[in-house]
Known about the structure:
The chain is 37% helix and 25% strand. It is an alpha/beta fold and 435 residues long. It folds into three domains: 4-136 and 303-338, NAD(P)-binding Rossmann-like Domain (Rossmann fold, 3-Layer(aba) Sandwich), CATH 3.40.50; 138-293, Dihydrodipicolinate Reductase, domain 2; 350-431, Alpha-Beta Plaits (2-Layer Sandwich), CATH 3.30.70. Strands 7, 8, 9, 10, 11, 12, 13, 14, 15, 16 and 17 form an eleven-stranded mixed sheet that branches. Strands 3-2-1-4-5-6 form a six-stranded parallel sheet, with helices on both faces. α1 (13-24) crosses α13 (303-320), α5 packs parallel to α6 (105-122) and α6 packs parallel to α11. The mean pLDDT is 93.
Amino acid sequence: MDPIRVGLLGLGVVGGxxxxxxxxxxxxxxxxxxxxxxxxxxxxxxxxxxxxxxGPDVVVGADPHAVVCDPNIDIVVExxxxxxxxxxxxxxxxxxxxxxxxxxxxxxxxHGSEIFAAASAQGVTVAFEAAVAGGIPIIKAMREGLTAxxxxxxxxxxxxxxxxxxxxxxxxxxxxxxxxxxAQKLGYAEADPTFDIEGVDAAHKLTLLASLAxxxxxxFDRAYIEGITKLTAKDILLAERLGYxxxxxxxxxxxxxxxxxxxxxxxxxxxxLLANVEGAMNAVLVRGDAVGQTLYYGKGAGEEPTASxxxxxxxxxxxxxxxxxxxxxxxxxxxPDAMADTPILSIDDVITSYYLRLTVADQPGVLADIARxxxxxxxxxxxxxxxxxxxxxxxxxxxLTHLALERKVNQAITRIEQLPFVRSTVTRLRMESLx
Length: 435
């Protein structure tokens, strides 16, 4: 049988890794796919460097449009990133009847609904395992392995950069800026780390997981996003004393009123599985009504882990080349005409527990007044710590609460900060039991 011919857009970290894995494991991959998979054309900026790496059998050029329009290319692998040129090229490839494999979470989070609709209309596949959690096969697990389940919630550590930073802050007691600089030196963080540390990268991935879990359109613009830049080493150490660890979590939950879709730092029990995911590793916890909780853990980035997911998609698409397009696994797990219009809830409508920290004057009646404000807002206290400050005339109070509505919590915080004995703003972190 003739080989599947692949056109590669981009030959950076992931593109280079994809080439290496295909060359090294080509025979094993062909045995699984039923035919060989060969990269026959590549579009890159540095043509000379690519030619030196790929050899004379691969057509190398600088024009990506030439790849997506080449009638001899069966599958286009998009690895250039961004959501402008990449969108144009992917839609062009689909219009030309080509299957697409991509690792581009930003592209799919923003334009996924348009891209998947175009692919369905054209009878081609868009595969994106590498777009979420690198080498962890979470997309395939949710799209195929858990199809018998009504997914209740998904919670994940899906950004390795922030997990590395939080792990180092906890284990070494270092401030955020110091650990970020170290992460950049080690290559875990980009020169401009904004997308990672502000939670945007994790939100891109969570948006796709929510669509797979609940059969809703891709809605990145409705996600609540909060990064880790305001976290202090003090809060991380206090959380540890209280039996919790702080992680940047992507959380999406099904509720009767709608879908929660949020990324933010959260306290989770230190004995939980996710709490013990350290360094630059990723992990996703999925709760289904039939199977219960399942955990998917591994490297969320890197040359060959991500390439592993790209090649896995190539194998899947190769197998599908003999399948009826109408009977393929849907892009987002649910049939395109069965997508639900369930609303995405505002962060104000989220119900969870809270960690609150503030500095107050060390005087009688303080605790009673704060407790009264919390009670008026429907919040009850699980536990409280009082830490005297060195000055002796102020103290730090830390409260852990039961479940509460975020809107009510915000109202309580506003009232507390107006009390005459309060000497600081209230540090508020959400807590997740993952139960």
